Amino acid sequence: MASLRFVFLFLLISFSASAQKDYKLWLQYNAVSNSALALEYKNNLKGIVVFGNSETIKIAQKELQTGFQDMLGTIPEIKSEIKGENNLIIGSQSNLNVEIKNELKSDFDKISTEGFIIKSFSFKSKKQIIITGKNDVAVLYGVFNFLRILQTNKSVKNLNIADSPKTNIRILNHWDNLDRTVERGYAGFSLWNWQKLPDFIDQRYLDYARANASIGINGTVLTNVNANALILTPQYLEKVEALANVFRPYGIKVYLTARFSAPIEIGNLKTADPKDTQVINWWKNKAAEIYKRIPDFGGFLVKANSEGQPGPQNYGRDHVDGANMLADAVAPFGGVIMWRAFVYSEHDANDRAKQAYAEFQPYDGKFKENVIVQVKNGAIDFQPREPFHPLFGAMPKTPLMMEFQITQEYLGFSTHLVFLPKLFQEVLESDTYQQGKGSTVAKVIDGTLYQNKLTGIAGVANIGNDLNWTGHPFAQANWYGFGRLAWNPYLDSETIADEWLKSTFSNDENFIKPVKNMMIESREAVVNYMTPLGLHHIMDTGHHYGPGPWVSNLSRPEWNPTYYHKADKNGIGFDRSKTGTNATAQYAPEVERLFDNLETCPEQDLLWFHHVSWDYKLKNGQTLWNGLALKYQEGVNQVNEMQNVWKKTEKYVDSVRFHEVEMLLEIQYKEAKWWRDACLLYFQQFSGKELPTGVEKPTQTLDYFKSLKFPFAPGNG
Ligand code: BDP
Fold it and tell me: Is the pLDDT of residue 317 over 90?
């Protein structure tokens, strides 16, 4: 009995230690196992000298101490002045002594206010390393980057890094409701415990801020775009203020979603018309009230006249009227309005993919200076693959910010391993041709294409109160990768995967190589087993869990999967070329030609832009039907291969995370087969053709797949 109890206790202890690993995200700070490298680190880090004593600097110092203790087993001596050599000096420009300031003058010229310098240099002929920037938050960014050098086992000799973020607003959008449910959230409930705030500060708020600061995220929208006006009442603003106070030292600003009808709902006004003086004043007063509590409040994110949300059009006004009215309210305090371009209407008979461009493009140049238009990466809705949104590059006089979805609403929830930076990179690298060749989406977003001052990237968060934050251990990589790309939209997804794996699991190349490869492949796998060759939006409706290509009975036509695939006896695909809806004309001529012409349209986007016959010949010589079926099978095979890769990693990974991922991959494999079988059986009704050799026969009937119902699928409000 006693020994059983001992085993149980042991299991409990080892479980919680491993569970903590999950919780620690990419900040594991594993002991450096390469002894030569560990020695190099110790030799170069004999002491720490700290300039400044703000909260932020204290956090930076503590982070270094934690990092060194865990990675090197020792903490360098904390010194009050620079004595001897091989010290690590941290502090912002204004806190440094004059000699160092002069020494680094040209380095400071290379960075922006948020940029940092990590440099080996000589001070009074003694070798030192310095981490500095123009303010303390920049120093904190530098500290996290320095620790990443150690985490990824790189040398600290002869460092010379000057790095600045390429975008200003690097922000998470939480679709969190006040009742703590999370729209499209698959990692538990909301982190924000409104009931216990403002007095109870959950340690998670600090850990959340720390994780975000470590990747350079500098803003968070706390509430759902489908907004509740109550968040703007004093009762809640007091709670928001408490969170803002926690996040501030980490350089994170708080933003809120503004429900356009708030003046009616909580302000007792009869209207929310943006031209009404009382409404204008109500928002001005509201902004003043918020800024009194939170002087660095970021501003509002607004979803208006979209999917039933109220907006200026309810009063015969337009998006410009609405955005500019709010912009005026926050402008005196330096706030911004992030106005979403995610609009489409069931009353508009036009192709849904065309509606946002049609509505917003003519507004170019009409928004106030502190408005930035937030555009989803594609014209429909966060699909496994979409061509880039035609608005990118098409509004030269308007700052546009990117909206990515980190939470996997249309990509298997938090059960499927899909490395999203690969998707993000594909979008950012896309060439809009709006200013000739090389006018990439990244250049629109970082403001270099049109010299915009206001720039930003938003990611719909995949974070909840699950022990491991994101539901799937590998979904942490999507949070991480989002942050890294928001800092530098030109980063390569392989570099990101490499960094993340090393900081999260192990530096062992035998682990890194196959697992990195698995991550990179995972994006194409999900496209293959869900929506190959340009198919899109064929998920089951409402919850978007699993396949539902047969759904055709919803009141709004553009919510039906049949609207998107248009399968019939003649073929499949949405004709958006000149012979169809002419959505291709919304792109620059070079891109328009590319997509419009069947010969040149990339096959990965084929059925997005064209309706082709089942016998259409693909580039590999297969008929469309066979090619489509083989793609579905390939997706399933890829997941199976991911399982094989993972099985071999057991010795590099703690048992909790190993088994979690193993079980999740098994679910993914099952669901990939479900997708393949359900979609092929459904499309086969139209093609009337046999499955080609190499594609496994479905073991269930189409009726069986159609009968599956998921009334409690998560994330669906
Ligand atoms: C859709 C989601 C819905 C969101 C909407 C949005 O299904 O829950 O409210 O996007 O972005 O994809 O506003």
Answer: yes
Tokens of 250: 């980490």
Helix (H, G, I), strand (E, B) or coil at 653: coil
pLDDT range class, residue 13, cuts 50, 70, 90 = low
Answer yes or no: is the C-beta of 404 below 6 A from any ligand 1 atom. no
Q: How far apart are CA 206 and CA 290, in angstroms?
A: 22
DSSP three-state, residue 335: coil
Q: Are residues 179 and 151 in the same domain?
A: no
Q: Are 133 and 240 members of one domain?
A: no
Instruction: Measure 173 CA to ligand 1 centroid, in angstroms.
Output: 12
Nearest CA to ligand 1 atom 11: 342
**Are residues 484 and 546 both part of a single domain?**
no
Report how far Cα 41 is from the mean position of its chain's Cα atoms.
Answer: 33
Evaluate if residue 8 carries a pLDDT over 60.
no
Q: What is the pLDDT of residue 1?
A: 46
Question: Is residue 183 within 6 Å of ligand 1 at its C-beta?
Answer: yes
User: Which CATH number goes with the domain that contains 545?
Assistant: 3.90.1330.10
Which is the closest atom of ligand 1 to the Cα of 382? 12
Do 431 and 209 touch, CB atoms closer than 8 A? no
Task: For residue 136, indicate whether it is catalytic.
Answer: no
Q: Is 226 in the pocket of ligand 1 (CB under 6 A)?
A: yes
Burial class (CB in 10 A: 0-12, 13-18, 19+), 194: buried
CA of 427 to the centre of ligand 1 (A): 19
Choosing from 351, 409, 466, 654, which is the catalytic residue? 409
Quick one: which atom of ligand 1 is closest to the CA of 225?
13
What is the per-residue DSSP string for 290-313?
Answer: HHHH-TT--EEEE--SSTT---GG
pLDDT at 338 over 50: yes
Which pLDDT band, with edges at 50, 70 and 90, does 576 fall under?
very high
Task: Tell me if 503 is assigned to some domain.
Answer: no
Q: Are residues 674 and 535 in the same domain?
A: yes
Instruction: Tell whether 49 and 100 lie within a shared domain.
Output: yes
Residue located nearest, by CA, to atom 9 of ligand 1? 226
Question: Measured between alpha carbons, how far is 58 from 442 in angstroms, rounded to an integer?
Answer: 35
DSSP string over 1-41: -HHHHHHHHHHHHHHHHHHHHHHTTT---PPP--HHHHHHH
The answer to whether residue 692 scores a pLDDT higher than 50 is: yes
Between these two residues, 10 and 666, which has the higher pLDDT value?
A: 666
* Termini Cα distance of the chain: 47
Distance 303 CA to ligand 1 centre (A): 10
Phi and psi, residue 578, nearest 5°: -55, -30
Distance 382 CA to ligand 1 centre (A): 9
Q: Best substitution site from 377, 409, 413, 539 to test ligand 1's pocket, by max atoms within 8 Å of Cβ?
A: 409
Encoding tokens for residue 291? 């800024």
Is the distance from the beta carbon of residue 303 to the nearest atom of ligand 1 less than 6 Å? yes
Please check whether residues 159 and 174 belong to one and the same domain.
no
Q: Which atom of ligand 1 is nearest to the CA of 226?
A: 9
In residues, how long is the chain?
A: 717
Q: What is the pLDDT, as a whole number, of residue 707?
A: 98
Same domain? For 273 and 157 the reply is no
pLDDT greater than 90 at residue 483: yes
* CA contacts within 13 A on the Cβ side of 197: 24
- 358 has a pLDDT exceeding 80: yes
15 has pLDDT over 90: no
* Helix (H), strand (E) at residue 63: helix 55-72
Q: In angstroms, what is the span from residue 577 Cα to ligand 1's centroid?
A: 27
One domain, residues 436 and 535: no
Backbone CA torsion sign across 230, 232, 234, 240: positive
Closest Cα partner for 686 from 535, 569, 607?
569
599 is catalytic: no
Looking only at the bridges linking them, the beta strands covering 253-257 and 336-340 are: unpaired
Ligand 1 centroid–CA 509 distance in Å is 40
